[in-house]
């Protein structure tokens, strides 16, 4: 019983002790959990701080120098992922030249020394360098010695410091390199900065500059100045002022400086002054010399004996001298601003503008010419102008200067001498001497330009009877009246030629007694002279009222042509005089050519011209049509309308015999309109008869094409007849298109817009250029017959035709060969790609009534 009781008590005691131990264990476990939770929270906080830190953080093994961990900031700074950071060592993120410095820090840590913060360049993954303020501290992590580095990005600060350094270096370079002397003085008179030029300008010893004492520098400067008291007063005034200052300093030795000063201000306070000095001694001397030179020039300009003008680039007067004012009767104020051309005599304006243009274009350094000015009172002044230009440094023309010499009196004297030597005192016409000079010029001109001209020798019939009957005074009146009628009767082109200077010169002359000579230059054909002679005879035969007496007179005319009747002055004069003798022998009051054959041919041409004028009214002009065919298929592609004249006595007259005549006398205009209308009406007739719509081409003459309203004339006829423009084609010769290229382009564009086809006729016989042809709205090139005639035997013609076809196709033009007469010619053209053929091989030109059969068949 007893034992049992003790055992129970012991058991109870043991259980109680066990409970205590259990509670102790539970408390221990709870504490452990609390510690673990605290540790976990601590780690979470560390991780958060580590990852969220704005500075980069790297943990490295102190022994291996390998990075164990890096936060997000360092990864972002260096461009690596966290995984990539773990594979790097210290050597991977620093430039080679900085590795030793970094490893030295690791060695200090290993020895327990403190590692201070320092700036380091750090390499990014992409090779770029950033700068960081690095601080490091040792730590034991996982029982291993480590180094924790904190990287603060200072790249912007470094860049700003570098920019500041460069700026300061640039500023120092500018200050030292400038020719101006620079002095910067602090508020207490301490010299903060000087440059080399300052010491050189002020001739200050280097030792004195190096001491930097403002007072010493001031004393040295004062000794050199002409007015030291004023200098010192100015300096003192400026040291207590915040204003800028600019003035001049004058030295005892004659030098002159410009002085510029501004306050040196920091945080709103005056901390000193900046001084700049420039030696302007040479400039002042040059300015004074220039002033004296300008004064001398002004005196010469104003008081010179000849007129002088200064004009701007627009040739407007800037100033003139007194002599020029006197010459034209204006005041200076009235002339300034006027255009020089407005003071120039109207007939001389173009010449003056041409000479001025040469100066403006720098084609001549100086030009001279004679011209006429108009005075304020309307009088005319002759002057010799010597003009030159004044250029800017860049070479641009800024002024024109002219010297004007009065030639009025010398001109009057020369004109009087010229009049006595070269003019007939009775009639005022040029005399034989002058006329021979003019003939020499006419011959030279005609020779250069391959022209013809006529010499008309006119003698009054039975003039001696007037003198014998009424006396010499009435005879003189008659000669003057005849001279007046000749001058008034002649067309300007008959009696005006061009002299060497480009001025018009009368060339009707009285060569002595009752004889006159007329020069008719640049003739198109001989019958033009015949018309002039006929007109002169009619004019002279009209009655004269001479001092109350009615007198009748006739004349005989002889005509010599250059070059057929002579190429020298004396030969032409002699032959024209001989021809005049023929006229007198033929009964007087007529004209004769020196060449007998010329008389008959001129008569024939005049008769033909008269008949041609009546041909339109008599319906003697008809149209024939010649088909065009496709070179490959022989299908009819078009027609060419060809004009024929059926003369009532002479029969069929070919175009070459009457078209040039119509061109010369202007009949080509009404004839051309007749052709256009007749072609359109024929197209309309075939169209209404149901035949295939085939375009018809017609030839356009040069004179017709040059009409201002040419396109409008065609448009009106097309509308009136109701024919589509696409049914009409125009053939225009190469030479016609080259006469006035810009106008030709305009006219062709108007025609092309209407829808008409346009062909260049007789291609290869003119002088057109490819650059010009490509600007024209063309559809066809017609190879001239002269290249087709010997096509199968002449290699040159073959090469020309081949090149023409290739060129035309390159310009998107079709090629028409005209004048094809043989199978061999056709084969060559087919082989070389010619598009269309026209010629006797397929068909001669046919009257309109024979064309329907061809149109119905459709091929040849």
- Return the average pLDDT rounded to an integer: 83
Q: Give the proportion of residues in helices.
A: 40-55%
Number of helical segments with 4 or more residues: 32
Approximately what portion of the residues adopt beta-strand conformation?
25-35%
Give a quick summary of the entry:
The chain has 860 residues and is of the alpha+beta class. Mean pLDDT is 83; it is low at 492-506.
Keywords:
34 strands, alpha+beta
Description:
The protein is of the alpha+beta class and 860 residues long. Helices cover 47% and strands 26% of the residues. The chain contains 32 helices and 34 strands. An eight-stranded mixed β-barrel has the order 25-26-28-29-30-31-32-33, surrounded by four helices. The chain has a five-stranded antiparallel beta sheet with strand order 2-1-5-4-3. Strand 3 and strand 4 (129-141) form a beta hairpin. The radius of gyration is 55 Å and the shape is flat. Residues 492-506 have low confidence and may be disordered.
């Amino acid at each position: 019983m007893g034992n049992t009781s003790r055992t129970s008590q012991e058991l109870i005691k043991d259980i109680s002790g066990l409970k205590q131990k259990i509670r102790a264990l539970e408390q221990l476990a709870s504490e452990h959990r609390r510690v673990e939770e605290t540790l976990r929270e601590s780690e979470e906080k560390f991780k958060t701080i580590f990852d969220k830190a704005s500075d980069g953080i790297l943990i490295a093994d102190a022994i291996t120098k390998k990075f164990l961990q890096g936060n997000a900031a360092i990864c972002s700074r260096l461009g690596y992922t966290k995984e990539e950071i773990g594979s790097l060592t210290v050597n991977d993120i620093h430039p080679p030249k900085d590795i030793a410095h970094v490893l030295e820090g690791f060695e200090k840590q290993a020895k327990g020394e403190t590692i201070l913060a320092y700036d380091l360049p750090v390499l990014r993954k992409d090779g770029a360098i950033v700068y960081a303020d690095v601080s490091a501290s040792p730590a034991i992590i996982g029982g291993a010695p480590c180094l924790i580095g904190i990287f603060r990005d200072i790249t912007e600060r470094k860049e700003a410091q570098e920019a500041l350094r460069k700026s300061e270096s640039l500023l120092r370079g500018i200050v030292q390199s400038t020719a101006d002397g620079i002095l910067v003085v602090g508020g207490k008179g301490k010299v903060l900065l000087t440059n080399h030029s300052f010491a050189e300008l002020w001739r200050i010893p280097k030792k004195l500059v190096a001491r930097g004492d403002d007072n010493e520098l001031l004393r040295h400067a004062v000794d050199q100045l002409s007015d030291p008291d004023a200098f010192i007063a100015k300096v003192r005034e400026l040291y207590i002022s915040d204003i800028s200052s600019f003035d001049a300093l004058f030295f005892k030795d004659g030098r002159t400086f410009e002085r510029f000063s501004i306050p040196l201000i920091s945080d709103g306070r005056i901390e000193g002054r900046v001084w700049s000095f420039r030696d302007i001694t040479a400039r002042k001397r040059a300015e004074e010399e220039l002033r004296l030179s300008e004064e001398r020039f002004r005196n010469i300009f104003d008081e010179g004996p000849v007129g002088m003008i200064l004009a701007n680039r627009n040739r407007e007067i800037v100033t003139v001298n007194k002599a020029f004012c006197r010459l034209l009767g204006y005041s200076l104020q009235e002339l300034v601003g006027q255009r020089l051309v407005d003071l120039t005599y109207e007939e001389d304006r173009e010449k003056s503008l041409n000479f001025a243009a040469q100066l403006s274009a720098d084609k001549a350094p100086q030009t001279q010419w004679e011209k006429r000015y108009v005075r304020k009172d309307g009088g005319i002044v002759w002057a010799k102008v010597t003009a030159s230009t004044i250029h800017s440094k860049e070479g641009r023309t800024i002024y024109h200067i002219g010297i004007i010499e009065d030639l009025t009196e010398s001109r009057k004297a020369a004109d009087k001498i010229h009049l006595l030597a070269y003019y007939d005192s009775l009639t005022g016409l040029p005399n034989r001497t002058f006329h021979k000079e003019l003939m020499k010029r006419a011959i030279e001109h005609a020779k250069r330009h391959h022209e013809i001209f006529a010499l008309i020798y006119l003698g009054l019939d039975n003039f001696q009877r007037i003198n014998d009957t009424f006396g010499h005074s009435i005879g003189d009146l008659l000669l003057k009246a005849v001279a007046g009628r000749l001058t008034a009767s002649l067309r300007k082109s008959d009696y005006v030629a061009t002299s060497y200077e480009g001025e018009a010169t009368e060339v009707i002359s009285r060569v002595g007694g009752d004889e006159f000579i007329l020069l008719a230059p640049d003739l198109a054909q001989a019958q033009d002279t015949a018309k002039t002679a006929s007109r002169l005879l009619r004019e002279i035969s009209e009655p004269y009222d001479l001092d109350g007496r009615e007198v009748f007179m006739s004349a005989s005319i002889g005509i010599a042509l250059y070059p057929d009747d002579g190429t020298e002055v004396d030969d032409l004069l002699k032959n024209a005089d001989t021809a005049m003798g023929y006229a007198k022998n033929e009964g007087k009051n007529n004209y004769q050519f020196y060449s007998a054959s010329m008389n008959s041919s001129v008569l024939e041409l005049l008769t033909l011209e008269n008949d041609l004028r009546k041909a339109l009214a008599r319906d003697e002009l008809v149209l024939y049509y010649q088909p065009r065919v496709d070179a490959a298929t022989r299908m009819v592609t078009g027609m060419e309308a060809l004009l024929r004249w059926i003369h009532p006595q002479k029969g069929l007259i070919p175009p070459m015999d009457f078209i040039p005549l119509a061109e010369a006398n202007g009949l080509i205009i009404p004839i051309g309109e007749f052709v256009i209308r007749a072609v359109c009406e024929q197209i309309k007739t075939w169209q209404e008869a149901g035949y295939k719509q085939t375009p018809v081409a017609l030839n356009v003459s040069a004179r017709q094409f040059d009409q201002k309203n040419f396109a409008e004339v065609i448009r009106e006829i097309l509308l009136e007849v109701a024919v589509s423009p696409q049914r009409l084609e125009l053939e225009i010769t190469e030479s016609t298109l080259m006469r006035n290229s810009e106008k030709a382009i305009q006219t062709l564009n108007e025609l092309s817009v209407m829808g008409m086809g346009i062909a260049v006729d007789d291609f290869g016989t003119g002088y057109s250029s490819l650059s010009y042809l490509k600007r024209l709205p063309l559809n066809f090139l017609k190879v001239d017959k002269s290249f087709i005639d010997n096509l199968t035997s002449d290699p040159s013609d073959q090469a020309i035709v081949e090149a023409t076809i290739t060129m035309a196709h390159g310009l998107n033009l079709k090629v028409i060969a005209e004048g094809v007469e043989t199978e061999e010619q056709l084969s060559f053209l087919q082989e070389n790609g010619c598009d269309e053929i026209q010629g006797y091989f397929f068909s001669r030109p046919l009257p309109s009534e024979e064309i329907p059969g061809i149109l119905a068949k459709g091929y040849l």
